[in-house]
Amino acid sequence: MAAERKGCILALSTENVGQLIRSTAMIKINYSVLPLFLSSALTFAGTTQIGPEKAALEFNRWYLDQIQDNKYPLDGHEIEKYVTADTLQNLLKIFAQEVRTGDALIDADPFTQSQDILEDWPTNITVISNTFEHGCQNVYVAFGKSQKYVLADCMVKEDGVWKVKSVTQISSD
After folding, report:
1. Does domain 52-171 have CATH number 3.40.50.1460?
2. CA distance 138 to 38
């Protein structure tokens, strides 16, 4: 074996050369797939998955900003990024029934559980805790400087995105 060595290079038979070419070609194929793999991995790594707390916070900020700007948040499609499709569908049915009958079926805003938005709420929204109960990741959100008005946003995943399914008032000012 030592006689066949020339420096660090091993003298190869024709059979061994064929084997080396096949394995080298295999290595080239593997390396040609590497950029595709890295590209996919980087794309996935660049995709930001946000948790239920951040999703609830973003929703409440967006929602109160809409109200503060005298825009009705349920107009348009932007709310679909934040609220589950079945919740929006149920609300639209309720609102349509209110129009048909003239009866008020909901006496407070469905997402603030309040008839009024206090002046300091839009700039003071804080996630204070969360729990998992009954299929919901309940995110407890406090409003205002005093943080005495607290809602529980029931967050669920819809198509891989955390969205509001329902809102419950926990405490008030």
Report:
1. no
2. 37
